[in-house]
Amino acid sequence: MFTEGQLYSPVTQGDDGNVLVHLSDEHPGVHDPEYRARRNAIAAMALNYRAGEPVPQVQYTEEEQRVWRIVSAELAFKRAKYACTEVVEAADRLNLPTDHIPQLDEVSAKLFPRTGFRYAPAAGLVPLREFFGSFADRIFHSTQYIRHHSAPLYTPEPDAVHEILGHANQLASPRFAALYETVGAAVQRLETERALKFLADVFWFSLEFGVVREDNEVRCYGAGLLSSFGEIEEFRGARLRPLNIAEMGTAVYDITHYQPILYCARSITELEDVVGGFFATVDDEAVAALTRQPV
Question: Does the annotation count 227 as an active-site position?
Answer without folding.
Answer: yes
